[in-house]
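Hello again,

I reread your note about wanting to compare the complex against the isolated chains. To keep things tidy I'm splitting this into two emails, and this first one only covers the full assembly. Below are the input lines as submitted, including protein chains and any nucleic acid or small-molecule components. They are followed by the predicted structure of everything together. The single-chain runs will come separately.
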Amino acid sequence: MIKRIVYGLGALALLLGLYGFYSRLFIGEREVNYGSYVTWGLWVAMYLFFAGISTGAYMLATLDHLFNVRLFKGAGKYALWGALVTMPAALITIAFDLGHMERIWKVYLSPNFGAPMAQLVWGYTLFLVVIVVSLVLTLRRPQTLSTKVVMSIGLFLAIFLSGGVGALLSVNASRASWHAAMLPAQFPIFSLTSGVALLMTLLGWFTPDDETRQQRVRLLGLAMIVLILVKAYYLWVDYSVALYSGVPDTARAVELVLFGQYAWAFWGLQVALGMIVPLIVLVQPRLARSGFWAGLMGVLVLVGFAVARSNIIFPALAIPELEGLTEAFHGPHLNIDYAPSLMELSVVSGVVGLATLAYLIGVDALPFLKKYEVTK
Amino acid sequence: MKQVLQNQQKASADVGRRNFLRALAGAAGAVTALQVLDALEAAPEQVAESLVPQTVTEADETADVLIRMQADLARALKKQPSERRWVMVIDLRKCVGCHACTIACVAENKLPPGVVYRPVIEEEIGEYPNVTRRFIPRPCMQCENPPCVPVCPVHATYTNAEGVVEVNYEQCIGCRACLTACPYGARTSDFGYTYAEGTPNADGLILGRDAADEYERAPNFEYGRPWPREAHGSPMGNARKCHFCLHRVKEGLLPECVTTCIGRATLFGDANDPDSVVAQLIHRPNVIRLKEELGTQPRVYYIV
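Full-complex prediction:
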């Protein structure tokens, strides 16, 4: 039943996305609201979000295929498949963000390896290959050394790429709220949390309701409680340091999130829906063992993460580099008050729909995924 | 008393001589301009050589600052590119906030809606009735340590031998990492607009959208080659920025914002030439650079 509903929601999301895909591919970037001051918008935030899920899902797949955790035997391939469908979702959203997406090959032929973005493009390419190889190896030779070597490489890449996304932001010394060494260090934890949330949903909603599932989602729920608390601690550290510093440029982005135009999304979606509600539900053993509730909490945490990624990107860019710059000249895309346009939201809806349908169709149609196995 | 009168007469004679020299320099400038026009019509391939006017290279310190900078430029162009270092000096005491430089830059580089290289930031100091206004033109700072360069994933932005940060339009993938990294907000992205959009098409003698579009689609000549606006090709979709009008400079012409400045507030030249106007100005104590604490070493100096 749940699967049918998710199929329907995925199809609806894709349908809603067709307008955005058409607009971006055939008209261009005219209908977007990001521009020359808020240089990166919703699509960059969603790229961070999907890439985080993908790398996090891979980290969890190693529980099965590298660390041989008994309880997660058989779950690894679902995590790997999740990683494989979310990484292209990340790449589609970031490709749409490029002014000249047809020139992406230049990153391969004339890369500047000193730039975090070039490192990430090469890293993602390698990571995609590693995911595919991991999937093949885990199905054909699950317990061999070659599988463990490939999974180790994949784990390293997953951590490196998660941190790299943080580095992509933190190298910008002109953006005070990003320019912290903590940012690249935090991102692998965020990715792991996203991966746990995804797996909670996948195992909670799309596997048979037996004792193994209850134990698995309960364990993932406990991990999620810890990770949410760690995330809350990071938020406290980041925001309190910025506010206590007394340097207006450092504090302004945080003030925008806490009390400004993004406050509703922060308090309502990121904190209440994405952190507090899952905490309340998951600390109750009866609910935490329920596949339905675990799956739903996974979705809520993911929604909270999508908002959290946005709250990292938008407010930092909404602070002009020079006071008075935004009033000095006017024109399209020279706006500091960013909110995603309908077209940007449409594209994201389409990408979510694509990833959802790709996951479900894969699980239902691919022979190696259809067969559900557990080790008791 | 006699001494005072003698001094006044001397001063008056000096003023007369100075005015005469200025007039002479002005006439020389006019003649040069005519020669330039002749040269443009006669032999385009020799324009670069002929645009370095001999009369200008001899301008003395009493000449108008534009004539002096023209002479500085002519001297600099005789050197190897790596031996010169272009800098801009903006005298905030002289800037009247007319925005002529902004508009001249838009016209010279045919900048579309939403793209600006040289906005003028207005700053209000104090509270009524004790209020003053300050105008801060903000071109690209052409940093010696530009944060925009290392973040470009494809080497599309780089510092050339003369110290100017350039954008290779056909290499740029439009990721806007450079816009994000620039601490001065000096780059804008071209989203492909034209001013004629929304103009109705018209028949007959009325100028309609087609005719207006034709003008807007005509190429600009940044980086010394034509860039027509068509089919979402570069520079549409690219990061764009001030480049000190290099296409003019290499032809012996000052950047457009410099020649247009009615208050002679914007100055340009080779900082490696100790006799140039800019070299003499940038070592003064009342010179600042924006956000110097970042260590970007901007090549745009402000006199305050």
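For quick reference: Residues 1-16, 39-48 of chain B have pLDDT under 50 and may be disordered.

B.
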